[in-house]
Write the structure tokens for this entry.
Amino acid sequence: MKLNRRTMLCIAAAFAPALLAGCASAPTHYYRLAVIPGAVSNSPVMKIGMRSVSIPGYLGQEGIAKAGADYEFSTYADDVWAEPLGSMLQDVTVQELAQRLPAASVVSNSGAIASPADILIETNVLRFDPDSSGQVILIVQIAIKSGRSFRPWLVQTFTNTATPAGPDVASLVAAMSTLWAGIIDQLAPLAVEQWNNHTASASNDQANDN
């Protein structure tokens, strides 16, 4: 049976929406790390400057890292970070430190507010992605420095791991959020300890000079 041109055009028009729907790209999903509260410390009144968080170049892309074969790195095509990972880690750190140290003023050094700091915190992420088994590995170096002389008071490396609750991206991001909050749980009392130790030492030196 032969179909005339008009009939063929009608059939093509009827199937066009379905064909276009099949060719349409999947929607992009944007994710951000959650700010997770921790234990509140009895902190002194001090100003903490949070410097930019350094991350490896391979984590600097917008796609979220996913588990792959050994030696292989890949990201989700349609699941991306809502902002660059380094900037997001800095923002989360400021918020989580401020919650844990309510008497301290915590300010991002890359923000619009410029303020001299008593303590500077520098962060160097060495790894923050899942391995071939799906376990998220976080390795980070943190330096606590004098805000006046920039002299290092403490440099320490932290290594934490976590297994996401499920195979979906939201579970992966939740595990990463928990891992980072665990680092801040350790950082907050260290910042207080270093401040107390060095201010006490400075007071003793001044008293001896007098």
